[in-house]
Fold this sequence. Notes:
The structure is a single chain. It contains three helices and 13 strands. By secondary structure, it is mostly beta strands. The chain folds into two domains: 16-45 and 113-209, Probable tRNA modification gtpase trme, domain 1 (Gyrase A, domain 2), CATH 3.30.1360; 48-110, no CATH class. β5 (73-76) and β6 (79-85) form a beta hairpin. The chain is globular and about 45 Å long. The N and C termini lie far apart (41 Å). 36% of the residues are buried.
Amino acid sequence: MKDIQRISPVVFKSTPSKVEKRDNWDVVMEYSGEGDGPYLVDLSHRPRFDLQSSKLAAIKPFGLKLPEIPGNCIFKKGILANRMNGIQVSVLNLDGQKDSSMPDEAEYTDVTDSTICVALIGKNIFSICEKLTALDFMDLQKKAPFLFQGPFSHVPCQIVTLSKDSDNSGLILTCSRGYGRDMINSILHAGEEFGLRPAGESRFTNWIKA
């Protein structure tokens, strides 16, 4: 049986200089002329799951204790878990080397192919975000990582702030796959004055290890 090629909904005009084949995805590791940042990185190939259960306290995906309060997140060993409400958590496997499988149980829904996932990393990313949303990513009352569920470029999104470090900031954004092209165009346009450029997965991998 022939494997089905999986295609990211995120398309950059930049030229890939290094590509890897992984789980039927063509993963761009590096683009030509990435520059000094900030960067927009496509992570749509990394596994994402929606977990819904009335017994979340007893569930530990990848051995991770889930956050209990909506809006709170846990990011450990490449796994990001975001508490959305009383019965729902989104789980993102941001570690490209970790086993991507989840238990075959009714509570889990694989949303990898139905959503996009991108990272904004580096300096000035929150100045870029200010042009696209009224959400306050620099809220002094919130300690990273934390989740916002709200409009970003007029699109319902999940946005997780991973770091508020001025020169090494980072966030993860996911939304429905159908918005992929318009979302990427909006972010790149808003980031043009700050030198925002597409970057390959290696930039994100190195960022989370720093």
